Amino acid sequence: MEPRRTAVLISGTGTNLQALIDATSVGIHPARIVLVISNRPGVAGLERAARAGIPTRVIPSRQFESRDAFDAALDQALREAAVDLVCLAGFMRVLTRAFVERWRDRMLNIHPSLLPAFRGLETHARVLEAGLPVTGCTVHFVRPEIDEGPVIVQGVAPVLPGDTVETLGARVLEIEHRCYPRALELVASGRTRVVEERVVVADEHPFERLLLHPSLQGTPR
Ligand code: GRF
Question: Less crowded by CB within 10 Å, the N or C end of the chain?
Fold first, then answer.
């Protein structure tokens, strides 16, 4: 089977984009990144894509007078590149219902919490505020409601004594970088189906949809 043509949408640094580039550019992978789109010019993620020889487009959201107009431009760019799958990776734009429905079950997002807990922004500050011992990240299919949708993969990271938003964020980011390639692989290989708004994986192995931060390996039970 031909690799699934995948676009990654970014707004910034693009470390998740980098993880996806790294994972899909070695050996045989069911996805190939054919386009990176940023809604902001000059961001580091665009350089990462250029370095990897991946075509980039900047579609500056500020220059569009409506969400519909921006999303129409986005959709056109994706169609021109004959994209099969879309990965949102630090893409800081709310998409219209029409756009989301057009890409239903073909568009993934990563969120830095264990959804459905801590939807929205500033997840790490809120986890620290709540005094929790654990957090993580979620890769899910996108739905019109923000940070909603069938969960594909989750990654777990501990909250450690003395953690700040920065140290916790960095730990969660490490597990994000392993979860996103795993989720894309599951989807691109055609093993996932959405049944009654839940992800079902064909021939699923135990723990295939769950990744642990390395600091949790071998912890006392
Ligand atoms: C990540 O924490 C992601 O979960 C969130 O935005 C951040 C993007 O980081 N949606 P990067 O641009 O991939 O480095």
Answer: C
DSSP annotation of 120 reads: S
Neighbours of 46 (CB within 10 A): 22
Q: Which of 50, 72, 103 is the last residue of a domain?
A: 103
Q: Is the CB of 90 under 6 A from ligand 1?
A: yes
Task: Confirm if 151 and 106 have CB atoms less than 8 A apart.
Answer: no
Query: Which atom of ligand 1 lies closest to the CA of 18?
Result: 13
Give the model confidence (pLDDT) of 89-113 as tens digits. 999 999 999 999 999 999 999 999 9
Atom of ligand 1 nearest to the CA of 91: 10
Tell me the two tokens of residue 165: 């938003």
Q: For residue 220, report the distance from its CA to the centre of ligand 1, in Å.
A: 31
Domain count, the chain: 2
Q: Distance between alpha carbon 218 and the CA centroid of its chain, in Å?
A: 28
This prediction's pTM? 0.97
> Where among 103, 118, 149 does a domain terminate?
103
Give the residue whose CA is nearest to atom 6 of ligand 1.
Answer: 90
